[in-house]
Specification:
heterodimer, A: 130 residues, alpha/beta, Beta Polymerase, domain 2, five-stranded mixed β-sheet, 7 strands, 18% helix, B: 402 residues, alpha+beta, Cytochrome-c3 Hydrogenase, chain B, 2 domains, five-stranded antiparallel β-sheet, three-stranded antiparallel β-sheet, 10 strands, 49% helix
Amino acid sequence: MKLRLLGKVYKKQGKAVFVKVKKKDFMKVMEKIHRKTQGRISAITGYDNGKNIELIYTFLLERYILNVKIEINRKNPFIQSISSLFPAAEIYERENFEMLGVRFEGNKNLKKILLDKASPKTPLRKGGKI
Amino acid sequence: MNEKKSQNRKETCKGYVLPIGPQHPMYVEAENLMLHLDGETIVDVEVNIGYMHRGIEELMQRRNYIQNLYLAERICGICSGVHTVTYCQCIENLMGIENIPERAKYIRTIILELERIHSHFLFLGVLAYELGLDTAFMYTWRDREYVMDILEMISGNRVNYSMPTFGGVKRDIPDSKIPEILKKLDYLESRAKYYAKVFHSDMLIRKRTTGKGKLSKNFAEKYSIVGPVARASGLKIDVRKDMPYLLYDELDWRIVTKRECDSHARIMVKVYEILESVRILKQCFRKVSKTEKNLKIKAPLRVEPNEALAVTEAPRGELLYYAISNGTDVPERIRVRTPTFANIVKSIPEILKGEQLGDLPVIIASMDPCFSCCDRITLLDVNTGEVKSLDGSELRRMGERK
């Protein structure tokens, strides 16, 4: 798989490759990763940088670790769910939903996973109350 | 008439919901299993986790890198060493430190492998206890003390070793202690071989575990199951071989896999992994005395804006740390993905469906949880609203009777 075709390769660290992808290409890239590799999804890391919310999808492939980064709007954070392609992603999507308030369209089981019902909404956001 | 009676009985038994937990620290976390039962057969399971959520990721954003080193160590009580090593590797990647001294690499590998042995011995003990084999439980935990002794000799602590730091390790392993440690390793090897024989051939263990709690290879692939559970389902994955870190690519060892996919395969994978770990340790101890006595290199306090990750193989599977820095001495974001989180939510319903309630403790134990704090189980009859309580020992007796 040619990584340049996925998006902009912005960092390399040993066996880990970091690729930045635009939101409109997101589903195409995920389908490509699903089709071309037997990749296992390891994590979805959510991060609020103050302006946008960054999501980093980490895949463990045969020879390297692929990190796909995507930025989404902080005020209206939504992105398509990849749980139909990678069923293991469902729990990581649920985690980001409760920690950062990202809505994953297409995830049928989008509810809290770690926090209690009474706990604060989106605790990992900047300026969020804990 | 009799038919009618039995039919009535079947109907009243349907729709039982049996909550297990939340005061039930199976894996590292306490969790709640809602079992939907038909008689004694498990029809469906809902897994609710998060009862042990302490907000460590948020806490890490308020402390500096050095303080986080101690916080990372306290994420898990059993595999505390692998958390610090992975955190250090992740922050070293963030700082741009590529090569740590050779001796530090050896010491880190030694800590990781000793921890794997002690975690696997603990697992064997818990599993034997759930099977009602108290002698085997005491034997394995007695042998675990030998590993704890070695860890204490090296680090001064039994649980939180606090050995790695950025750029190397804090304490050295004195060469004078190595012969004694090697002797203890010989003993551990002979014991592990004995357990391999016992757990492989004992009729009782075989009957209770063979064919129970099946987790197919397809499922493990689809749901990204990690660690010994995945290896027992025939997946040849191990971060130590796939993405070698420390010295694992220089040492001679092999990945243990099984194709049977059941509880017994999960036990055998762990027993053989103890033998592999002993093999790694012997090589390390023989080579460590030949390396230079250089323990660490200087690491900066502040870290330039950057992002990095580190993946390692913890005793229970793949452990991932992802860190983002912002130029100060406090990290911007640190994300921890533990192997339990990947393994438990989707696979527990899959392996328990269709099994008998009496087999539940053994099957859950074979997934490597910490079932020792098995507190209380409430039986709730949905139809009548009647609530009964069973304590852990009663559930265990039920398992033994079977």
